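Hi R.,

Here's the chain you asked about this morning:
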Amino acid sequence: MADICLNVEVRDHTGTGGARADRRAGLVPGILYGGGLDNVAISLKFNEVNKAIMSGDFINSTITIDHKGDKQLVITRDVQFHPVNERPLHVDLYRVNADQIIQVDVAVNFINHEEAPGLKKGGALNVVRHEIALMSPAGSIPSSIEIDLTGLDIGDSVHISEINLPKGITSAITDRDFTIVTITGSRAAVVEAEEEAVAEAEAEAAAAEAAAAEEGGETKED
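And the predicted structure, written out as tokens:
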């Protein structure tokens, strides 16, 4: 769980005009919802939100919000950014409890590239999923999932069933054993294999043609 605490204020003014006024005042408008309670329009300090975003732990991680000493655990569900300067324009925060099971997308990190025979041969790491959808207790969301590439050769792949997920955490996708990463042959290796196949086919064709010509000559002599 990310160690981020943001101060919030309840907004009396809502709508486009109120949101613009907040932004001019150095605030980021937002909405707090979920947890069986009413939606609440809130505002957060731009500098605090921007710092949290830059930390990499603001999205898909639980954070704490503080309203005049009243603290609540939340998870960021959405952030809207300015299309040009990428400043945060609006945030959606969802109330959670530490033991509550929620769905989150967790980044995948790959380790021990140098121990993968397929990569040593010039193969390429084909990442099918950079993130995995997981069901996790809100209070113990992993920052990432590590996948060990040791021993993987060209043609090998890693599926979700082969990953030892932390206790209490499961895949959000349960209807199939999806692929996360594969080791594929490099384009140079593919081209080389294709050239070898063509050369072998041409050699076989030439040998067959020579054999047929020889057989034809022997027939004429007879």
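The CA atoms of residues 100 and 137 lie 5 Å apart.

Let me know if you need anything else.
M.
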